[in-house]
Write a structure and sequence with these properties.
Blueprint: E1 3-10, H1 20-27, H2 33-41, E2 45-47, E3 63-70, E4 85-88, E5 92-97, H3 114-121, E6 142-148, H4 151-162, E7 167-175, E8 182-185, E9 188-190, E10 198-200, E11 208-216, E12 220-227, H5 234-241, H6 264-271, E13 278-286, E14 293-297, H7 302-319
């Protein structure tokens, strides 16, 4: 059943003379301007009992009545796919996404996505943009995602993400041995030739990635990575840009670097790791409704645990 929304308000002197859509954005700040404009065009908003256009001006004392329905935002179908939920309340979900799961449908992946699974778990999410998904992870990146369950929560979470108030921390295994941690501050945009790839380019959007060394191996390092921005493939592109690409990355990884004299088991382990070694391990935010500080941590998946165990074993064998 679709969610019905009803609100009433009065145009105050400070809103007098503003456009209707501007006044509504001030009266009902929990909804985006584009959503309010849509409702005005759909006839969901009345001013003194009459319909108005978004650009028409409103005046002191006029009464506003908003009656809207959260209709399904897209044609994504619900599918009975298990979800690993670390948190669930009436306003948001925190999902631990496995590697191999696409976040939302796109060409070549119309089913089996996180969005399909979310719609089965909570059909009401169909009324939200992308079923409430606030940010995404690449298909082969595992770890934590936050999902809004109401328009109010969605708008506030998106705003906090844009304001860099949602903290996202990752673990990454890279090829090579950085001498120290650091910050990569380089704009990211579409690759000028290969449009399916991203690249550091002057025409891109600002992007900053912080990293520090967690553990060193012989030819690889485990890094703690924190995003300040959230560009597509950001960690993968930035680490490749500074010549420490993610192990297993099929797009930006380059040639696999094997430790000198590595055992057959180590060689087999490294050659058999076919996804970028990246895990979104910790998510911290202020709850969009209650205001509480919340944090979650996702344990490393089995494939990354095995990888790290193998790299440690290789290091110990070499030091023995």
């Amino acid at each position: 059943m679709a969610e019905e929304i009803q609100h009433q308000g009065v145009i105050t002197p400070e809103l007098s003379g503003k456009r209707l859509d501007q006044a509504l954005a001030r009266l009902f700040p929990d909804y985006s301007r584009s959503r309010l404009q849509l409702w005005i065009r759909q006839g969901r908003v009345q001013v003194d009992g009459k319909l108005r256009k978004p650009r028409e001006k409103v005046w002191t004392g006029e009464s506003i009545r908003l009656r809207a329905v959260l209709e399904k935002a897209d044609h994504c179908e619900a599918e009975d796919i298990p979800l690993d939920l670390l948190h669930e309340d009436e306003h948001l979900l925190v999902v631990n996404k496995p590697a191999g799961m696409v976040v939302h449908p796109a060409a070549g992946n119309w089913t089996g996505t996180l969005q399909n699974a979310l719609l089965h778990h909570d059909p009401q999410l169909g009324g939200l943009p992308r079923s409430g998904i606030v940010h995404r992870l690449d298909k082969d990146t595992s770890g934590l995602l936050v999902v809004a369950r109401t328009l109010v929560a969605h708008k506030r979470l998106v705003e906090r993400l844009q304001a860099r108030e949602i903290k996202r921390e990752y673990l990454a295994v890279v090829n090579g041995l950085p001498t120290a941690g650091g910050v990569v501050d380089a704009p990211i945009g579409r690759h000028p030739v290969n449009r399916v790839r991203m690249a550091v380019t002057p025409a891109g959007k600002p992007a900053r990635t912080h990293y520090r060394i967690n553990e060193r191996f012989r030819n690889h390092a485990l890094l703690d990575v924190q995003l300040e921005s959230g560009r597509t493939h950001q960690i993968r592109v930035h680490m490749a840009y500074i010549h420490y690409p993610l192990l297993g990355d099929p797009v930006y990884g380059g040639r696999l670097k094997l430790p000198a004299g590595a055992s057959d088991a180590t060689v087999s382990l490294l050659r058999g790791f076919h996804r970028q070694a990246l895990h979104a391990r910790r998510l911290s935010l202020v709850h969009p409704v209650t205001g509480k500080n919340l944090s979650w941590e996702s344990p490393l998946p089995e494939d990354l645990l095995s990888l790290l165990e193998g790299l440690r074993r290789d290091r110990e064998e070499h030091e023995a």
